[in-house]
Write a structure and sequence with these properties.
Blueprint (H helix, E strand, L loop, with lengths): L6 E5 L4 H10 L7 E6 L2 H4 L6 E4 L8 H12 L3 E3 L3 H9 L13 H7 L2 H10 L7 E3 L6 H6 L7 E5 L9 E3 L2 H15 L6 E5 L5 E9 L2 E13 L13 E6 L3 H14 L5 E9 L5 E5 L1
Parallel strand pairs: 1-2, 1-4, 2-3
Antiparallel strand pairs: 5-8, 6-7, 6-8, 9-10, 9-12, 10-11, 12-13
Length: about 290
C-alpha cells in the first residue's frame, strides 16, 4: 500500500526549535509538506515552512479553532507541538481534532506540567528525584529550610511553566522570601506556586525519547555545556542549552525510561526528560 504523503502542521514556526524540527522532517522521503503556525507575526517571518499562518495565542480562546481550520484547508495529517502551552491546549481539546495528535494521555500531560506533583509521583515510584516541598505561604519557609539543615543551597522555582521559570538557588530563608515576593509582586506568580527542593550540583542531562504504545522507538541523551542567556539569570542555569553534546549516559537513560514508564503504562509520543546529578552522582529527574 502506498504511503500517504505527510502534511505536517508545526507550531511555534519561526523559532529555533521549530526550524530544527522542520529541517529533520525534510530528510524524510517522500519530502513532507510543512505548514507553520505562530501567534507572533514577527517570529513567523523567520519560518522555514512551506506555508505559514498566524493563529491566536495558545493561552487564549480561538487557538484550536484556528488550527482546525488550517488542518482542513491544508489537508494536514499530523500536528507537532513545540512548547508546553500548545501541548496543553491540544490535549484539552483533543476530541475535537480529526487526526492523531501524537500526544500522551491527558492525565499524563497534566501531571508532567505540574513539577511538584510529578516529583511526588516519581518519588513514590522510587524513581530518583530531588526532595521537594511545596510552599503554601511565606511562613512555611523556616520549617522547610529546617528539613534541609545539612545542605547549603536549595533550589527555588515555580511548579509550572518552562525554561526554568522563577528558578534560582537560595542559601537562606531571607533570599527565598525576597525571590518569591518579587515574582509575586512583579509577575503575579502566587506564593503557593513555588517549591523548594534539594540543590543538584552535578551534570545536566536531557534525554529525548520517542514511544509508541509502550514501546520505545528511539532515545538520545545530551549533556548541557552552557545555557542560553545564562548571564541574565541569577542561577546561571537554564532549561534551554546554548551548547550541548551527545553523550553515552546509560544510568541517566535508564532512569529517564523508568520515569516515563512511571507516568504512563503504555507511553506514546515524545517525552523530553531533564536530569541533574545529585551530590552522590546519581541522576535525578527534575522535569518531563
Amino acid at each position: 500500500m502506498k504511503k500517504r504523503p505527510i502534511r505536517a502542521l508545526v507550531t511555534g514556526a519561526g523559532t529555533g526549535s521549530s526550524a530544527n524540527l522542520m529541517r529533520a522532517l525534510r530528510l524524510i522521503s517522500p519530502r513532507p509538506y510543512v505548514v507553520g503556525v505562530n501567534h507572533d507575526r514577527f517570529a513567523l517571518k523567520l519560518s522555514v515552512a512551506d506555508s505559514n499562518y498566524i493563529a491566536p495565542d495558545p493561552d487564549g480562546r480561538g487557538f484550536c479553532d484556528a488550527l482546525l481550520d488550517i488542518i482542513k484547508r491544508e489537508k494536514i495529517n499530523v500536528v507537532m507541538a513545540t512548547n508546553d502551552n500548545v501541548v496543553k491546549a491540544l490535549s484539552e481539546n483533543r476530541r475535537r481534532f480529526p487526526i492523531d495528535l501524537l500526544l500522551p494521555r491527558r492525565e499524563t500531560i497534566a501531571l508532567c506540567q505540574d513539577k511538584y506533583a510529578l516529583n511526588v509521583h516519581l518519588r513514590r515510584k522510587n524513581v530518583p528525584a530531588p526532595r521537594s516541598f511545596e510552599i503554601k505561604s511565606l511562613r512555611n519557609l523556616e520549617k522547610i529550610f529546617a528539613r534541609f539543615s545539612d545542605q547549603g543551597l536549595l533550589w527555588c522555582r515555580a511548579r509550572g511553566g518552562s525554561r526554568s521559570l522563577a528558578g534560582t538557588p537560595v542559601a537562606n530563608v531571607e533570599q527565598a522570601r525576597a525571590w518569591i515576593s518579587q515574582w509575586r509582586d512583579l509577575q503575579g506568580v502566587k506564593v503557593s506556586e513555588f517549591t523548594l527542593a534539594e540543590y543538584l550540583p552535578g551534570r545536566h542531562y536531557m534525554v529525548q525519547s520517542l514511544w509508541h504504545e509502550g514501546t520505545m522507538i528511539r532515545t538520545q541523551a545530551v549533556e548541557a555545556l552552557s545555557y542560553f542567556a545564562a548571564g541574565n539569570n541569577p542561577s546561571g542555569i537554564f532549561s534551554l542549552s546554548n551548547l550541548a553534546k551527545t553523550v553515552a549516559a546509560p544510568e541517566a537513560v535508564k532512569i529517564a525510561i523508568s520515569a516515563v514508564e512511571a507516568v504512563e503504562k503504555r507511553p506514546s509520543g515524545t517525552f523530553f526528560i531533564e536530569l541533574r546529578e545529585a551530590a552522590d552522582g546519581v541522576p535525578s529527574i527534575t522535569e518531563i
